[in-house]
Description:
Keywords: Membrane, Signal, Transmembrane, Transmembrane helix. By secondary structure, the chain is α+β, with helices and mostly antiparallel strands. Helix content is 18%, strand content 31%. The chain has three domains: 142 residues, Lipocalin; 138 residues, Beta Barrel (Lipocalin); 115 residues, no CATH class. It has seven helices and 22 strands. The strands form four sheets. An eight-stranded antiparallel β-barrel has the order 1-2-3-4-5-6-7-9. An eight-stranded antiparallel β-barrel has the order 10-12-13-14-15-16-17-20. The chain has a two-stranded antiparallel ribbon with strand order 18-19. β1 and β2 form a beta hairpin. α6 packs antiparallel against α7. The longest helix has 27 residues. The protein is elongated, with a radius of gyration of 24 Å. The structure holds 2-acetamido-2-deoxy-beta-D-glucopyranose (NAG) (9 copies). The site of one 2-acetamido-2-deoxy-beta-D-glucopyranose (NAG) has 2 residues, from loops. One 2-acetamido-2-deoxy-beta-D-glucopyranose binds next to loops.
Amino acid sequence: MNLKFLMIGIFQCLISSFQTAVGTCTLPNVFRNSVWHDSTRGDLNFTNSTMSGWQTTAYSQSISQWECYIDSHYESNGYLIFKSLQKVTFAGVNFTGYMCMQLTKVTDYSFYYYLLYTQQHNAAEERILYAENATSNVSSICITSSKEPLEQFHVLIKSGYEWEARQYCPTPVLGNFDYTYTGSDGNAYCQNSSDQWRVCSDRQTMTFNYTTCNKIMAYSRGGQVWCVGTVTSSYTFFMVYNNDSSVDGSATFRFTCFSISPDGLKASMVQNNCTENQIPSTFAKRHDGQDMGAKLIMTPYLTCPFTSATPKAENVNVGAVVGGVLGGVVLIVVSVGLYMFYKRNWRMKRSSGQDPRSNVADVKAHNAPDPRTGHGQVKANIMLNLSPREDLKPTNDHSSYENHVPGNECKSPMQSFGSLHVDDYDGQFSPRVIM
Ligand SMILES: *[C@@H]1O[C@H](CO)[C@@H](O)[C@H](O)[C@H]1NC(C)=O
Ligand SMILES: *[C@@H]1O[C@H](CO)[C@@H](O)[C@H](O)[C@H]1NC(C)=O
Ligand SMILES: *[C@@H]1O[C@H](CO)[C@@H](O)[C@H](O)[C@H]1NC(C)=O
Ligand SMILES: *[C@@H]1O[C@H](CO)[C@@H](O)[C@H](O)[C@H]1NC(C)=O
Ligand SMILES: *[C@@H]1O[C@H](CO)[C@@H](O)[C@H](O)[C@H]1NC(C)=O
Ligand SMILES: *[C@@H]1O[C@H](CO)[C@@H](O)[C@H](O)[C@H]1NC(C)=O
Ligand SMILES: *[C@@H]1O[C@H](CO)[C@@H](O)[C@H](O)[C@H]1NC(C)=O
Ligand SMILES: *[C@@H]1O[C@H](CO)[C@@H](O)[C@H](O)[C@H]1NC(C)=O
Ligand SMILES: *[C@@H]1O[C@H](CO)[C@@H](O)[C@H](O)[C@H]1NC(C)=O
């Protein structure tokens, strides 16, 4: 009798622990009990195992409460799978939402992510799986071939650490510019003036002076935003954060995504995140095809004379790149040599009136006038490894990734911004990591 009860007890215990293990997970440490600014969704509130604030609608019913569902693929490829705590009812059936985020760490206080699922035309075009019955099949929730396009990346910044999330602005925007602004209404503004869009005084900050043209730039009333992340294909897509004391969600926003041409002469901006195929000469598009944001044409007064092509080299994991101390010594010698070579080269270019924005990424640009060919990338690759700029270096926090192996940086979800490159832009993006 006793034995029978004991057996049943053990059995029930096993079942319930099995259910707990499948049904919920504990969020990665970095997110627990904290609030994060999502470039697309506003503020997300994480507890140990739940997340609220990521709001969506399906069949006219709202979902904004989620719980951590599967985290077993987080360390290997950055997947975090959430399950909706609210259900939506359609045709008498209750559906649960399953959302797969692929996260990439940028700094200790910022990430970017993509959703991995096909767009649901009958559920607000969101990339969420709605299922009647529980599923724990990761490959049916995270469909890698249905990942959001490269340019549509979303950024997360931990509340209170916005300043720490700053990154160098990408090379094409390193200048002080006059600009014209074309709104989605088709009207052009800022045409006759000597407008000021400045990056040269602080490589992580873009400032706008609204005296000559009062069109709000980067949705910032204060006219000052911080670069927080970049992805690159044939064009450069970068996100800025607006630290204004408040934003209203119509004229002003926390985040703006810019798509900019490699020569820094054209850009397209939109609030929250770039949209699919948002190239610098086109407007961002809503799902219904309507134009959003603004197009900009820039004329540089000055390209920033950042002579520190020699980066702040501290914390760079050179050893992992080359594979040891010996490699490191050789590397330093080579680096110094290359630095002197490029410094001299840079002076020559500068005195011959060429673009003084001579830095690592420009080496690539100079060698590859047509970024579609991919020529010059090998050289850029070498340069990146030898002397990564602050904004190009991997920000890997190896300690929090147990299975990290040197040389495997490319596969790590901790890969930094600035390392995704795409060959052959034909309206479709297929990212290739070159670092
Ligand atoms: C986040 O959620 C927790 C638990 O629901 C709540 O106690 C806390 O006030 C929330 N914080 C914010 C900033 O919304
Ligand atoms: C969150 O997790 C920590 C550490 O695992 C634990 O000490 C704490 O009690 C948990 N808090 C809640 C509200 O579950
Ligand atoms: C759907 O959910 C509602 C509310 O929780 C519940 O009353 C109903 O029985 C559920 N329907 C099915 C088919 O499970
Ligand atoms: C969900 O489970 C119920 C009960 O097992 C089953 O009748 C139904 O067909 C399942 N639905 C799907 C979509 O598999
Ligand atoms: C998981 O889902 C994939 C894709 O839908 C499918 O091919 C595979 O058979 C499923 N695996 C299991 C164990 O159900
Ligand atoms: C630019 O100057 C022209 C001619 O001086 C004037 O007609 C036009 O309104 C000005 N445009 C703007 C946007 O100020
Ligand atoms: C903005 O431009 C005006 C006119 O050129 C100038 O007087 C003012 O000092 C500038 N403001 C800032 C903050 O640079
Ligand atoms: C950013 O905004 C917060 C909240 O308004 C403020 O406390 C902080 O000082 C600002 N930081 C900077 C560097 O302006
Ligand atoms: C941002 O991303 C969402 C998908 O998460 C997409 O629907 C939307 O069009 C993108 N752009 C803007 C400006 O919201």
